[in-house]
Amino acid sequence: MKTSKVDRIKNFSGTVLVPLFETKTNDTVTIEFDGLAISPKVFTGKKDSYYLAVNGGKTYVFIGLGKTIDYKSLKTIFRRIAVKEKAILENQVVLNIPEEFGDDQVEAAVSGLLLGTYNLGHFKNEKEHPFLDTNFDLKICSNKEYTTVVNKAIKIAKAQLETLSLVDLPPNTVTPRYLATWAQEKGNRYGFEVKVLGLDAARVEGLGAFLAVGKASQNEPQFVIMTYTPKMSSAKLKHIGLVGKGITFDTGGLNIKTAGMVHMKCDMAGGAAVFGAMQLIADLQLPVQVTAIVPCAENAVDKTAFLPSDVIQSYSGHSIEIIDTDAEGRLVLADGLSYLIKNYKPEYIVDIATLTGSSVGTFGYECGALFTNNDSISKKIQEAGDAVGERLWPLPLWDSYKSDIASDIADVKNYSGKPVAGAISAAKFLEFFTQEHTAWAHLDVAGVAFGDDEFAKSKHATAYGVHLLTKFIENL
Question: Catalytic annotation on 330?
Answer without folding.
Answer: yes
